[in-house]
Amino acid sequence: MDDLGASTPFLNKYAQKVSLCRRILRSIWHFLSKEPAKSIHALKMAIAFTLAFLLALIELPYSVFGDHIIWAIMTVIVVFEFTIGATFSKGVNRGIGTLLAGLLAVVIGELASLGKGIVHPIMVGACAFITGAMVTYGKLWPTMKPYEYGFRIFLITFSYIMVAEYRQSDPIRMAVNRFFIILLGAVIGISVNVFVLPLWAGDELHEIISKNFNSLADSLEVCVNEYLRGAVLERVPTKILMGLAADDPVYEGYRSTLISAAKEESLATFASWEPPHGRFWKFRYPWQNYVKVGAILRHCTYSIVALHACLRSAIQAPVQVRSLFRDEIFAVSQACALAFRKLGGQVSLMQKSDGMAIMSGVHRAVEQLQESLYLRSYLLVRPETGILEQKLTEELPLSVIPEIKKSEVDMEVAGRFNPTALGIAVKPESPLELNRRQYKRLYSWPHREVDDYKFTKDSVLQQKVRVLESASAMSLGTFATLLVEVAMRLDYLVDAVDELGELAGFREVVKEQSNGPEQQGEENGTNHSMFVL
Amino acid sequence: MDDLGASTPFLNKYAQKVSLCRRILRSIWHFLSKEPAKSIHALKMAIAFTLAFLLALIELPYSVFGDHIIWAIMTVIVVFEFTIGATFSKGVNRGIGTLLAGLLAVVIGELASLGKGIVHPIMVGACAFITGAMVTYGKLWPTMKPYEYGFRIFLITFSYIMVAEYRQSDPIRMAVNRFFIILLGAVIGISVNVFVLPLWAGDELHEIISKNFNSLADSLEVCVNEYLRGAVLERVPTKILMGLAADDPVYEGYRSTLISAAKEESLATFASWEPPHGRFWKFRYPWQNYVKVGAILRHCTYSIVALHACLRSAIQAPVQVRSLFRDEIFAVSQACALAFRKLGGQVSLMQKSDGMAIMSGVHRAVEQLQESLYLRSYLLVRPETGILEQKLTEELPLSVIPEIKKSEVDMEVAGRFNPTALGIAVKPESPLELNRRQYKRLYSWPHREVDDYKFTKDSVLQQKVRVLESASAMSLGTFATLLVEVAMRLDYLVDAVDELGELAGFREVVKEQSNGPEQQGEENGTNHSMFVL
């Protein structure tokens, strides 16, 4: 090595070049390995494409099929999709579309050729018109949507063979030829896709659904912990309103579940085209049940979205009020998150387990929360009823949230804004703009005539503050109720996962945890309690 | 007419046949006119297809382009999409893909042909491999998604010309030929699509978004009216959980908003390809703002979903409690529905109007609801606190909801179920199955050890009932808070519609309604008050 270091300038240059090459190669490798599935797909496509190309380059197939061999390459290009299911679906669509269209075109072409002179092209044209209209209408039929590609190929082959027939080539030979060339292309495409590093739609669906359980659990935990910590957040930012990626852990947790409906649906459709493979070694694997589980997860998500809205609501329970029910709310969120994770684990590991055991911890926690709300709900309503005066002034100096108090003050200073000048372009990045919008919003809310009030002993401002105080304490009740709603929807989820496990033949596991769900819950609680403090 | 009726059997038969034909034609017409857009599309496709076919049937173009004329027909078939924007997008993709691939293939082919003997096919194969891998990888790039079709066409043309080049045809002539034929097909497809009964993606997007405002308003109104009427509904049925169409007016109202995200996105993409037309006579029309409005509508929908969950929740406020706040809740729902409709009208008629004026009715109603909650929220908490005893026993015989009472009784009779036998297949249609599942759910909820209770003066059952009573009254507070949340999200919607109006240049309208939103609200209230009674 020392020898090399002390060698001639030529060798030095050479070493530099090598290291440059290595750096370039490494950065390419880094780039490609970021999303390995995409690289794998590109590589597979290149292999299939080249194999089809060889058909045209090598003498034997070319001498048999002639220039038509290009159809095999086109078939590979068109049929080769990301997942195996999609490739199968397209390949079969293409095959059947070609076959049927070939048969129809040969028959119609023969009939049309009975007309002599000008009648022949008119009949061909009329047949084209009718076929075109009917096939296009059929393609738009709702139940025909998965076969849309087949309809398109039908028209292409139909016109191809009709033209050949009209132009006095040998239409039958051409139809057979075209069918076999397309078959050849489809076989190349499908074989490469299946036998070289296969990417199954079923696997992807399984992963997505399993992951969504965990991210919902994360989302729920973070949301409840932030709430109990008394985080004061601005209202829902525009990015979240628009469903775009945003830097909010709660939102990031549930976002993928919220937007993945179409993807899950199409993956399930493709997966149903796939033969039994790997973990899913079962004929007629119940892929549609994954979609069902996904849909019910989405339904749980709607409740979490509502919880998130509570967390970011302008009218908030003061942190002292929240702390009254802290343990119970925390226990419910922990139990629900644990249930989500356990169910996700069941799906992910393909294990069956006792739904009742999973839910018993949740039920216990929910009941304790309800009981606690029952016993102490009087703390949530208006402070000056008399009996609570003492307790509240001691324990909780119920204050309006800072935002609102600020708005009252600012309003006096800022005076009236010109509303038409404010409702224009939204640039969530500009703090100035945000400020203006905030003003507008805060200004627009407490807008009321004095006469509306039925009590007049206090100043209007004081009354206003008291109404908002009451609403703010009430919002804790809402938060708790929504949390209970999440817990209740878990029941449906347990059913759906059970059903999936039954139909998919998940493995039975020895019920070791059926006795101690509470212990596990508590254990989990202590593990995560640092979040609350 | 009488003559015909009394004529010979032959004429009779003839008349029968005519009436049969007429019936058939009428039913076909009925069938086609059900979804006119689909029929129009099919007709247009047939026209374009036939026109392209004529190129192959008539001597002149055929003598120029020969058998390659089939590419024009294929281009029409492939490019012809439902909306004009989609057709443009595909046409341009196809054109540019073909052009670039043609250039690249000619250059690479010439370079590869420098290698003699076995080197030539090897170089061609290597080029195919590299091109295939790179193009496929590029296609998967997230920002390249709209151009996916262009990449595919690139590969097809590339292979087509490379093979031609290898097989000693005239590649440049072929590339030019192919380009012009494809251009011809694209021109036919696009012209027919634009000039014969055009279907614009922009129009469809505009309609969808406008309609969603009204259906959300309907959904909200029905939901609140049902709630105030004290409707006792079963829990959310599986169909709704799965996002399928279901016979529930509340759900049907918000469903389309909930599931239309992907559709709105793709329509906006296609619309941005469309030239200015009709009402949208503006260069760079802000289609993405429609998507934004749609997204914020979806965010409002999540709150309505939560309201709907309240309506169908197992734990419900008794109708007497609901009636305490009936007027205020009804006023908020009416004001919100009116605001939704007004905003929808603005979008639909492309008018600008004052957002503050629209919202002032909503703000007033929300404040009255909050005030009322403040003044009477003590009615929502546990009845035996003492001060309320008298009032409650007079006004509200707070009873547990029938479902739960029934479950307590049934439980005694039914004994313990075997839980593993219950968690299996869900068939929402079977009433027996539903019953069993209902049992399971009702059984599974009130499951708790007696020791958990901190008070022991009543029997366990009585205590249990009281806890549920408290939770049930509390659920009214949740309903009200969620309703307020809907109202608050309307602010964002007003902003988004304002922004859209500003950028799209909606017409300014004379502000006639800016003084009397309350009057309109009240008027509306009386119109719809029959729903409540």
From TrEMBL, chains A, B:
<feature type="transmembrane region" description="Helical">
    <location>
        <begin position="118"/>
        <end position="137"/>
    </location>
</feature>
<keyword id="KW-0472">Membrane</keyword>
<keyword id="KW-0407">Ion channel</keyword>
<keyword id="KW-0813">Transport</keyword>
<feature type="transmembrane region" description="Helical">
    <location>
        <begin position="95"/>
        <end position="112"/>
    </location>
</feature>
<keyword id="KW-1133">Transmembrane helix</keyword>
<keyword id="KW-0406">Ion transport</keyword>
<feature type="transmembrane region" description="Helical">
    <location>
        <begin position="68"/>
        <end position="88"/>
    </location>
</feature>
<feature type="transmembrane region" description="Helical">
    <location>
        <begin position="149"/>
        <end position="167"/>
    </location>
</feature>
<dbReference type="Pfam" id="PF11744">
    <property type="entry name" value="ALMT"/>
</dbReference>
<comment type="similarity">
    <text>Belongs to the aromatic acid exporter (TC 2.A.85) family.</text>
</comment>
<protein>
    <recommendedName>
        <fullName>Aluminum-activated malate transporter</fullName>
    </recommendedName>
</protein>
<dbReference type="InterPro" id="IPR020966">
    <property type="entry name" value="ALMT"/>
</dbReference>
<feature type="region of interest" description="Disordered">
    <location>
        <begin position="512"/>
        <end position="533"/>
    </location>
</feature>
<feature type="transmembrane region" description="Helical">
    <location>
        <begin position="42"/>
        <end position="62"/>
    </location>
</feature>
<keyword id="KW-0812">Transmembrane</keyword>
<dbReference type="GO" id="GO:0016020">
    <property type="term" value="C:membrane"/>
</dbReference>
<dbReference type="GO" id="GO:0034220">
    <property type="term" value="P:monoatomic ion transmembrane transport"/>
</dbReference>
<feature type="transmembrane region" description="Helical">
    <location>
        <begin position="179"/>
        <end position="201"/>
    </location>
</feature>
<dbReference type="GO" id="GO:0015743">
    <property type="term" value="P:malate transport"/>
</dbReference>
